[in-house]
Design brief:
With 199 residues, the chain is an alpha+beta fold. The protein has a single domain, classed as Glutaredoxin (3-Layer(aba) Sandwich), CATH 3.40.30. 51% of the residues lie in helices and 10% in strands. The protein has 9 helices and 4 strands. Strands 2-1-3-4 form a 4-stranded mixed beta sheet, sandwiched between helices. The longest helix is centred in the first third of the chain and has 18 residues. The radius of gyration is 16 Å and the shape is globular.
C-alpha cells in the first residue's frame, strides 16, 4: 500500500484550494496519508523562498491572479485578502497534531475546516474558539485545543526539520513512499497518475 506524507502550512491558500482531492485520490488508490503541518518560516528559509511581504511586487501580483484563476477552477469560496492573514499557524498546527495522536475523528476534515475558516469564513485560526469549533465539527474533543501543547510544539518542529531534509520547499507538498515528490495542489493529477501506475 502506498503512503503519502502530506506537508502543509495551515495558512496556505494553495493547500486550501486542494479541497478534499488528496483524500479522494488516496481512498481510490488505497493509500494512507500522514498529515504533517510545518512552519512556513522554516521551510522558506531552508528552501530559498521568501515570506509573501518580502517578495517582489510582480510576484505578489501574479500570486493574486493565480489565486483568482484557481478559485474559479475549483469553485471554492476564497477571500483573496482574508481578514486574518497572515496569522500564527502554530496553534492550529498543534491542534492537528494533537487530533492525529488522539484519533477518533476525521483528520482531513479538521485540516480543511481550519483552512476554510481562514480563507472562506474570515476567522482567525490562531484563536482557541475557532480551533475548538473546527475540532468539534471534525468529530474531535474540543479540549484538544488545550492539551499537548509541548508535544505539539516538539512535533511541529520535528515535522519541519523532516520536511526540509526531504526537500520540501512549499505548501502543499506530497511525498509518496519517501521518494516521489509533488509540489502544489495543481500537481494532484500527477500524484493520482503516479499512484495508478500511469506516471
Amino acid at each position: 500500500m502506498a503512503h503519502i506524507d502530506y506537508y502543509f502550512f495551515t495558512v496556505s491558500p494553495w493547500a486550501y484550494l486542494a479541497g478534499d482531492r488528496l483524500e479522494q485520490i488516496a481512498t481510490e488508490a488505497g493509500a494512507s496519508i500522514a498529515y504533517k503541518p510545518v512552519h512556513p518560516g522554516g521551510i522558506f528559509k531552508a528552501g530559498g523562498g521568501l515570506p509573501l511581504n518580502e517578495r517582489p511586487q510582480s510576484r505578489q501580483d501574479y500570486r493574486l491572479q493565480e489565486l483568482e484563476r484557481a478559485r474559479k477552477k475549483t469553485g471554492l469560496t476564497l477571500n483573496l485578502h482574508p481578514a486574518h492573514f497572515p496569522t500564527n499557524p502554530a496553534p492550529s498546527s498543534y491542534a492537528i497534531i494533537a487530533a492525529d495522536k488522539a484519533g477518533a475523528g476525521d483528520l482531513g476534515a479538521l485540516t480543511h475546516g481550519l483552512m476554510r475558516a481562514c480563507w472562506a469564513e474570515e476567522r482567525n485560526i490562531a484563536e482557541d474558539e475557532v480551533i475548538r469549533d473546527c475540532l468539534t465539527a471534525a468529530g474531535f474533543d474540543p479540549g484538544l485545543a488545550d492539551s499537548g501543547m509541548l508535544t505539539g510544539a516538539e512535533t511541529y518542529e520535528r515535522y519541519t526539520e523532516e520536511a526540509v531534509a526531504a526537500g520540501v520547499f512549499g505548501s502543499p507538498f506530497y511525498i509518496v513512499d519517501g521518494a516521489e515528490r509533488f509540489w502544489g495542489q495543481d500537481r494532484l493529477d500527477d500524484l493520482e497518475l503516479h499512484l495508478s501506475g500511469g506516471l
